[in-house]
Amino acid sequence: MIRPPLFLPQGVMRQILLSLATALLLALPGLAQAQATATDILNENRALIEKPTRAKIAPVIEALATSGDPVAATVLAAWAEKGLGLRKADGAFFLIEAGADGWILRDLSGTDAGTAARADVVELRPNAGVRGLIATALVQFTLSDPDPARRADALTSIARDPEEAHLEPLRASLATETDPALRAQKERLERLLTLRFDPDSAARVAAIQGFGADLGLDLRGALNPLLATSRIAYAGDVPEGVNLARNIVPGTDLSEVEAYDLLVAAGMAPARLTVEEARAALLANITDGAVAGIPVAELGTQAARDRAYTALEVAGAVPAAATDAEVAAAIAAHRFAEVYEEPDPLVTSAARTALDAITVKVGAMQAADLALDAISLASIYFLAAIGLAITFGVMRVINMAHGEFIMMGAYTGYVVQLFVTNYTLSILIALPLAFAVTFAAGVAMERLVIRHLYKRPLETLLATFGISIALQQIAKNIFGTQARPLTAPGWLDGALTFNDVVSISYIRIAIFVLAMVFLLFFLWLMKRTRLGLEVRAVTQNPSMAASMGINPDRINMLTFGLGSGIAGIAGVAIGLFAKVTSELGSDYIVQSFMTVVVGGVGNIWGTLAGAALIGALQKGIEWLNPSNTLAAQTYMILFIILFIQFRPRGIIALKGRAAGD
Amino acid sequence: MNGIKGMMLGGAMGMALAGAALAQEETIKVGVLHSLSGTMAISETTLKDTMLMLIEEQNAKGGLLGKQLEAVVVDPASDWPLFAEKARELLTVSNVDVMFGCWTSVSRKSVLPVIEELNGLLFYPVQYEGEESSKNVFYTGAAPNQQAIPATDYFLEELGVEKFALLGTDYVYPRTTNNILESYLISKGIPKEDIFVNYTPFGHSDWSKIVADVVALGADGKKVGVISTINGDANIGFYKELAAAGVSADEIPVVAFSVGEEELSGLDTSNLVGHLAAWNYFQSADTPENAAFIEKWKAFAGPERVTNDPMEAHVIGFNMWVQAVEKAGTTDVDAVREAMYGLEVPNLTGGIAKMLPNHHLTKPVLIGEIRADGQFDIISQTEPVPGDAWTDFLPESAVLESDWAELDCGMYNTETKTCVQIKSNY
Amino acid sequence: MTRQTFVERSFLARNPSVLWFILILAVFTLGVTVLSEAYGLAFISTSFVKTLGKTLCLCLVALAMDLIWGYAGILSLGHMAFFALGGYMLGMWLMYARTEEIVVAALAQGGLPATPEEISQGIAVQIFGVVGASEFPPIWYFAHSFWAQMALVVLVPGGLALAFGWLAFRSRVTGVYLSILTQAMTLALALYLFQNDSGLRGNNGLSGLQNLPGLGDVSQDDLSIWFFWASALALGLGYVLLAWLVSGKFGSVIRAIRDDEQRVRFLGYSVEGYKLFVFTLTAVIAAIAGALYYPQAGIINPAELAPIASIYLAVWVAIGGRGRLYGAVIGAAFVSLLSSWFTGGRAPSIPLGFYTINWVDWWLVLLGLSFVAVTLFAPKGIGGLFDLWQGRMAPDRKGAQLGPEDGSLQEKEALK
Questions:
Q1: Where among B235, B253, B279 does a domain terminate?
Q2: Measured between alpha carbons, how far is B235 from B237 in angstroms, rounded to an integer?
Q3: Signal sequence: where (chain B) (predicted)?
Q4: Do B275 and B153 fall within a single domain?
Q5: For residues C393 and A446, what is the distance between their CA atoms, to the nearest angstrom?
Q6: Is ipTM over 0.90?
Q7: Which residues of C touch B178 (CB under 8 A)?
Q8: How far apart are CA C187 and CA C253, in angstroms?
Q9: pTM
């Protein structure tokens, strides 16, 4: 009877794997019997399984996978998930599960085998490398598993460690795939494997071209290895038949030193003399206090040492070292080329074309990602500064304790989470509570200290600094110096991913939204409410405002409290994305003042512009110098200092009476 | 006015100091030089408590050489110049016989000239960057070859990592460690362009760009791994961003050298399961010695306290010092130093720590995977590795050797067969 | 008194406080010497002599701060940066020269006389090996020369102050804006020095500065008292110089600038020029103080110029009393010694029953709050006590302020 064609590929796959396994098993004495049961294999390799290393464990996993024992897949899966145990008393393997007091044991076929004390069973903990091998071996069992989650796991495993052996089973499983998402994933994976491993170069080229300018990291990960090159020096012209990437010319494409090093490495030229070797040679040839007639006392310069060495060379006492002229001649006598490691030129040129197209697109996307990062950073600065835009920008009060209000807000969030364990609920409670706490603190500070110092701005600065120092230390005394956790609710986990290049975490989006909400709130408050009108009046001319029936004391108090309260809310947001420590505030205080000053005091749009400028600038400098983030911060501050020199009133300067002095 | 006031204060303080010197009794004084305030207090206070516990325990056993031990605790307040000042005070005013202290490299460098000048003895318990050997310091923490190199080997051999991102806070330990790792990786055949290095300030919080850069490293199809020497608070933002970007330990594993049980308590670790840390000690080590130590510690300091790697270093260092004093029959620094070489003390994680003539210990290297409960699963433990003061992977240091027993030199050039210097470079 | 006699009286007669100050400083120096371990009764330990020497340097930088803030009304939050820069400049020579001795001695054993390249390479490896580099950055170009580095102690901070001041004063940045700007400058400088790439060993900074090259055999007991003398001399000279400056016409002009900049400008004075001069001069004085301070401290690193350090400087001057030179000295000595007493763990804890006040933890809170209290209730600081003693009360100006700064000493001419 003819088998249904549906099963044919699977059978073929099995056969390939089996023959592969047999070859392996023959090489491994402990596993000589091909059809050993899983238990036998485990027992024979007990020592290796107890302390597995990636380099040695592969044959054991392979043997288990191909044993044909129906429990093998279960055993492998359990092993990877730290569900396999070894009873110390007799060395028997069990599937284990943590119970109330000790382990619940089942034997390998899944039947109950009682319990054991925690100390009696060794829990096997394979490392990530071994787990990866197990996952790869499990692919054959799970590619067509009825459970879609396990099929997805199998695909992830293939994507992580693509192997030539996966291509056939993957193609085979395509036909039976019913889940459309998984099917798309399988098709993509099949093409990725094809372009790397298919023996037919036309199929590979077709697979490459089929992707177009796709942005996937996996595609670039598959294409780039095809274009890996190595630099080779040839005595004559570059021979025919190598897949040449390009000819390289010493002096332009690579330095002469590099070119000569290539020759030395290939054994095509003698090595150059190093200073240490020359020194050792001279030391070895000291006779009667002189080297080749030059007294040792005179060898205190490099020139004299070179002379002495040359003299020794002439005398034949030391081997001739390559001189500069010889180096130049050797370089001139050779051709250098970059050669593809992939022999097929059709494939490499197709890959090159595809990758060039991708690179352009990736560049654009990276710019977009950088812009998102910049916007996100700007919104964080804006959020930290918006309270200051009220207290400093509108009221002209320098509050150096502003950072500590941010910190108080963050700690409020932390304390709320201690009592309310539902993260969503706790954040909803923490936001208004943080506002209330810092509002109260702000009002208290205004009443007790700042009110007395309105005429002495420099002393406000110093007094609020005193408060800042005290608040910071009090926070340390209460909460300790260690960072405290402030965890975002689950729905803010993860990131909004546009493609493999552009993504932004939800928490940053939330901060951006919060910043925008406060911008609108500020505008509404200042332009549309009575309080805003009174605030503006009091700021411009307190005595005139007072004579119009406004109480300046009350307005100042409320305004200051409002600015402080917003700082508290900013603290919760900043704590969510970074950390909660007593120094949280001082990290932001200088940047916040910079934001307000650069933007232009007294104008919320200015603060927005300042935050945008600083955020964009910092990300821009980071992009130029990716290995040193500290430098970015330094240059950013330097730029701001210079900027203020030339635009002392900021980007958006108030004009006329509103400008005050 | 200033003069009078200063003199009055000066006189009063001088008298207090002189009084302390006069009141010297028949005790052996142990100086404890750990910050109790300032930024490092959180880490160092624990070590001070450890020392107090060890001294109390030793006194309960009958003291040392028939005398009681007395702890002299000072607070250098995380202020580096103050470390030098307090060390001088301990040695000249309190006349301590030995000091246990320091955490950061810069504090150690600040203390070095003072203890070399006054011939003191310091036990330094923290993993550090090496490239130093002082006659007067015993380094009971890990040298790079006892932490960084084995962890990198684990990446290369077990995880098959082919492309490395070395992320660190911008100070001396990450700088030197990354330098050593870079040359080590190049010697292992990793091309230089496959090693990405980045330094961030202390307490850095904006990690989005750096995490994106690391993810983008995977574009050429090589397996990427991160070696993190990020210090302290900055780790929180880093791991949060890593979790937000959905980077799992299976795709891009991160091994950290400065993240322990303490640091993880500031984080929700459920998203970080599987990332790694390399130390010479984990609280989760399953040995009877460790269980006994944890029990003693909790009884002494409180049930909620955790144990960590530098604490183990102090335990080993203190036990060794006690043995050496007993062997030498005196607390004289030079005699004790001579007696230290070759002494053996059991580790808390199993095996034996042996003091080498280069003032370093043999230590096993443990690699742990982060669990969801903030503890570590130990997945690899090596045999004890001898500590190396001068790394073999930097050309300038490869020729150097430290041997205070035979050569009496901390910086011996094996090529020219000369002692470069007796005092250390600070 | 008539204007004529006012001018004729000598500088010292007009400023009796200068004589008093010099006298007290001399007695103090002598007393410490007599009680020191090196030259006397060994009653004061060497480490305490070092503390006193360092305190004198802090008094000197406080004097500079008083001139710029108390007299000229510019609240600079950057003077500790100049102080640290001075320390860095001298520290470079100290490190270079000390390492050179070691390297030359080591290479001398090598069989061949060392080449200059080998020596320079050896020094570089020794100094920068710890931060993973082995080559001299360009900023170390002059490090081999004592005199060049000594000149840089003055030139680098002075030059930075000149450039920064010129830019800032030219654009008429004043008041709190200037304070924030100077703070930003300090932060930028600190962040820059924190980088290892800056070539000054990053976070580790320069260490072992207490060991002077060529003086390896001299004990620290002697060195500490030498530096103490040098610091006392510098403080004495600085005090006389500044007292002379502020007692003349120059002093009147900068006080006038403090009280009303516009009017002085309309009177035809170059306000910017005066400000720039004061800013640069005080930066140079701060740098000299720093160059004397760090060899006593032994180590300098970027944490020393964190913005908070400059704020503490302002705190000292404010607590001591602005606008009078002795006030700055008293403030610096009093607060820094008190601070080291409190944080040194010597202050007795206060048990409250339910909670024990541990001064190590609560000192900063006390300092912060007392600072607020001084600003609010005693703007003249400790120096105000001298007014009470001399019976010099503020003039009754019927409620109007003398100047914008309540804390500054009222002028004699306003008294009558």
A1: B279
A2: 6
A3: 1-23
A4: yes
A5: 30
A6: no
A7: 132
A8: 31
A9: 0.85
